[in-house]
UniProtKB/TrEMBL annotation:
Transmembrane segments: none
Similarity comment text for this entry: Belongs to the serpin family.
Secretion signal, residue range per the UniProt entry: none
Protein name: (African queen) hypothetical protein
Gene Ontology cellular-component terms listed: extracellular space
InterPro entries: Serpin_CS (IPR023795), Serpin_dom (IPR023796), Serpin_fam (IPR000215), Serpin_sf (IPR036186), Serpin_sf_1 (IPR042178), Serpin_sf_2 (IPR042185)
Domain Serpin: 11-372
SUPFAM superfamilies named in the record: Serpins
GO molecular-function term, one example from the UniProt record: serine-type endopeptidase inhibitor activity
Organism: Danaus chrysippus
Keyword Transmembrane applies: no
CDD domains according to UniProt: serpin1K-like
Organism lineage string: Eukaryota, Metazoa, Ecdysozoa, Arthropoda, Hexapoda
Keywords assigned: Protease inhibitor, Serine protease inhibitor
Length: 374
């Protein structure tokens, strides 16, 4: 596997991830952020955790993680025209604790991770230190990722990934054309939201399998874009999410899109979401890392101490307006010692839809817009 085939695995993981999120409200997530942490854990584990993680990530071997994630990290850092920051950091208990030597080499060379020693027994100071770093990496969009009560003297390390994106539409919307219009929450319930409008040439497609329209809005630089999957039915979004989670190839749908004139109406929106990964990941088959015994997390520390993941959380944010989009996400995992040419097509996003913010082919943020945003 290389960086050309990794996006397919990331799309599959992202679809399964998003399908497990709250379906009663708008949500935003970065499955990719979680995948960076899971990939690091994979390289530091043996079975049963190791095989679970590889299967869930859609990757067959450690060497493929090393080659594909290294290429992915380099590609993300080189995207033109937008601001995209991807940062990984490992906080290790102070004293003579450190990562296993092999894992530390991988963390640096593959994930470009930074390291810092922390006194976890001073839980509030440790949480403040970690949260300040996350806040700095995400332009102050993600705050208070780690709570002080999740840290104590048994904490051995905290893995954190932060992703921040800000881009300007290649074809910006004119604020003068933005006006309140009905957005269908269900087939019988609407709410007025500010809807943006523009007629221009966009990549557009129609999917019979998903029973949906697809629109791709490009950002300055031509590499990053937002894909919107708009079900034809007002209450069709859950069906789209289910089909994608079952393996429908969204990348193939992208290849079938054409650049044509489209009358686009989409809502301005702002979404913030907090996700308990300790609840979500087991639904994707990742269970062992949360077990307090015989989980396989044996190649992480330089000391023969059993570890388990005691806390795993992600916070994500996105704002879409006439100028473009701003998005941020951070995922953290706390590891404890075991104790103990036609007329213009209309694309009217006035009902629940899926959005995917991506670079040339890798999904970075994945979410749904269902009702009035923040």
């Amino acid at each position: 596997m290389d960086v050309k085939t990794l996006p397919s695995s990331i799309f599959n993981f992202s679809a399964k991830f998003c399908n497990e999120l709250d379906k009663s409200k708008s949500v935003v997530s970065s499955p990719l952020s979680a995948e960076f942490l899971l990939a690091i854990l994979t390289l530091g584990s043996e079975d049963p955790a190791h095989s679970e993680l590889l299967t869930s990530l859609g990757i067959s071997a450690d060497d493929q993680i090393r080659s594909s994630f290294k290429s992915l990290s380099q590609n993300l850092l080189s995207i033109k025209g937008v601001t995209l920051k991807v940062a990984n950091k490992v906080y290790i208990k102070d004293g003579d604790y450190d990562l296993n030597e092999d894992l530390k080499k991988d963390a640096v060379s593959v994930f470009n991770a930074a390291f810092e020693k922390v006194n976890f027994s001073q839980s509030k100071a440790a949480a403040d230190l970690i949260n300040k770093w996350v806040e700095n990496q995400t332009n102050s969009k993600i705050k208070d990722l780690i709570s002080a009560d999740s840290l104590n003297d048994d904490t051995r390390l905290v893995l954190v990934n932060a992703i921040y994106f800000k881009g300007t539409w290649k074809k910006q919307f004119d604020p003068a054309n933005t006006m309140d219009q009905p957005f269908f929450i269900t087939s019988s319930e609407t709410v007025d939201v500010p809807m943006m409008y523009k007629e221009d040439n966009y990549y557009y497609g129609e999917s019979r399998a998903l029973n949906a329209q697809l629109l791709r809005l490009g950002y300055v630089g031509k590499e990053a874009s937002m894909l919107i999957v708009l079900p034809n039915e007002v209450e069709g979004l859950n069906g789209v999410l289910s089909k994608l989670a079952e393996g429908h190839d969204l990348l193939k749908e992208l290849d079938d899109m054409h650049n044509i004139k489209v009358q686009v109406t989409i809502p301005k929106f702002k979404i913030e979401t907090e996700i308990d990964l300790a609840e979500l990941l087991p639904k994707l088959g990742i269970k062992s890392i949360f077990n307090q015994s015989d989980n396989g997390l044996t190649k992480i520390l330089n000391k023969p101490e059993g570890l388990f993941v005691s806390k795993a959380v992600q916070k994500a944010f996105i704002e879409v307006n006439e100028e473009g989009a701003e998005a941020a996400a951070a995922s953290g995992m706390v590891m404890m010692m075991r104790c103990a040419p036609m007329p213009p097509v209309r694309f009217d996003a006035n009902k629940p839809f899926l959005f995917v913010l991506m670079d040339s082919g890798t999904p970075i943020f994945y979410g749904t817009h269902r009702k009035r945003s923040l």
